[in-house]
Amino acid sequence: MQRMNERRAFVLGLIPIATVAVAAAACGSPAGTPATQSTQAMATQSPQAMATQSTALAQEFTSEWYGFRVTLTEDWSGDDAVVDWDGAKLQGLRSPAFARFADPATGRTLVAGAARVAEGMGLAEWRAAMVRAAPPVCSESSSVEETSLGGEPALAWIATCSDGDAIKLAALHGRRGYIIFLDSQTAKDAEDRRIFESIRNSFRFTP
Q: What pTM does this model have?
């Protein structure tokens, strides 16, 4: 009888311990698990979160006049062209014949225009025409890089002007010749080149 009482006392003594263990597990696991997941998420998803933020801050601009769209960050603003460009001269940045996109925080301006070209005109000829169309205050580099714009072959080069530099790009699409350039005080800088390449990669011709 005494042994049975001792055994019962032993079992009863285990119950509070088991209860505390279960309670600790019940309280600790839910609180601890999300904290671990949150830390892991921060550690593993930070680059992705940054990329998502970058994407979320991007906005798409469309030029109905010249039939293209391009993606820029939220800091940029845009104005479409309102009159046709004749393709003869590269006019000022605020010309109504150009689609214009500007980032006031950095002073960068993206300008785009298009004009009808003669049948059979090649890309090198169009680029040469754009060199001749540049204002006299600009010196056009003879070094040309072969690249693409919206799936079309393109040529890119640097222009050094008295009021700043520009990365220029010439392309042909349909029966029109396109000229696009990023105007900046430091267009030869790596950051300007990175921005220009981002813009170029986002560029799409629209019907």
A: 0.72
Range(s) of the domain holding residue 101:
58-205
Contact 53, 87 (CB under 8 A): no
pLDDT in tens, 53-63: 444 478 999 99
Which residue, 139, 198, 128, 197, is CA-closest to 166?
139
Q: Are residues 63 and 137 in the same domain?
A: yes
Same domain, 6 and 73: no
| Domain co-membership, 32 together with 93 | no
Task: Return d(Cα 205, Cα 207) in angstroms, integer.
Answer: 7
41 φψ region: left (φ > 0), alpha (ψ -120 to 50), beta (else):
alpha
Domain boundary among 18, 36, 56: 56
DSSP code for 8: H
